[in-house]
């Protein structure tokens, strides 16, 4: 009996120590915020998310960072593109994540690489980001995300570095979504 009381006392102490930690509070806030955004992005009835627009496949082309910003889901056709590690994906079918009001809307029409690598849902650079300061662990995490994007979404082209010329895809076969040439050795 005394042993049980001691155990529950220890557990109570541990619980209070944990909830006093700022890291714990920050993590709980992040989880609550993201769950709230995901539920909200599914629509008001909590069951059926709004259908993503059915759009024709985009012709293969490369984008500057500025051109990419036109595809954040706010324009008329609602298309959403996201760049990950130098490749641009059409993520329109995941608009509830990346479109306006979605939990990862900061990535819509942007280069999401740094945000995905560092688990920061608000990070998307205004300037071209060469990612050279990221750690090996961050780069591994980015490559994991990249594989998921390759599986789920169509490749549209590459994200261009400042001054880089776009690839002319007209003489390339436009059949596969995973054949975009990449400038990086990722
Ligand atoms: C910490 C709390 C987090 C929670 C609870 C959470 C929860 C979720 C859930 C439930 C989904 C799937 C939603 C669905 O299929 O309906 C999802 C998708 C996703 N999460 Fe999170 N997430 C968290 C953090 C993050 C972070 C830190 C990142 C990266 C910066 C991230 C990036 C993503 C992305 C990109 C997707 C969508 C993948 C796709 O395109 O299908 N999440 N998240």
Automatic annotation (TrEMBL):
The keyword Cell division appears for this protein: no
InterPro entries, A to Z: Cyt_B5-like_heme/steroid-bd, Cyt_B5-like_heme/steroid_sf, MAPR/NEUFC/NENF-like
GO CC terms: endoplasmic reticulum; membrane
Keywords, sorted A to Z: Membrane, Transmembrane, Transmembrane helix
Chain positions covered by the region annotation Disordered: 159-186
Pfam family, one: Cyt-b5
Entry keyword annotation includes Transcription: no
Span of domain Cytochrome b5 heme-binding: 63-160
TM annotation in the entry: 14-36
Coiled-coil annotated residue ranges, if any: none
The family this protein is said to belong to: Belongs to the cytochrome b5 family. MAPR subfamily.
Protein name in the entry: Cytochrome b5 heme-binding domain-containing protein
Organism: Phaedon cochleariae (Mustard beetle)
Lineage: Eukaryota, Metazoa, Ecdysozoa, Arthropoda, Hexapoda
């Amino acid at each position: 009996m005394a042993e049980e009381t001691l155990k529950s006392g220890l557990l109570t102490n541990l619980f209070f120590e944990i909830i006093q930690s700022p890291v714990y509070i920050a993590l709980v806030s992040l989880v609550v915020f993201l769950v709230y955004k995901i539920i909200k992005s599914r629509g008001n009835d909590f069951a059926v998310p709004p259908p993503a627009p059915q759009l024709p496949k985009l012709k293969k082309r490369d984008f500057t960072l500025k051109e990419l910003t036109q595809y954040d889901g706010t324009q008329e056709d609602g298309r959403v593109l996201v760049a990950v590690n130098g490749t641009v994906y059409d993520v329109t079918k995941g608009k509830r994540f990346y479109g306006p009001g979605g939990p990862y809307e900061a990535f819509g029409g942007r280069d999401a690489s740094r945000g995905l690598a560092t688990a920061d849902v608000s990070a998307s650079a205004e300037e071209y980001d060469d990612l050279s300061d990221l750690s090996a662990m961050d780069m591994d995490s980015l490559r994991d995300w990249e594989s998921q994007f390759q599986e789920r979404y169509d490749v549209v082209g590459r994200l261009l570095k400042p001054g880089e010329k776009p690839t002319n895809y007209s003489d390339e076969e436009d059949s596969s979504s995973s054949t975009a040439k990449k400038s990086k050795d990722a």
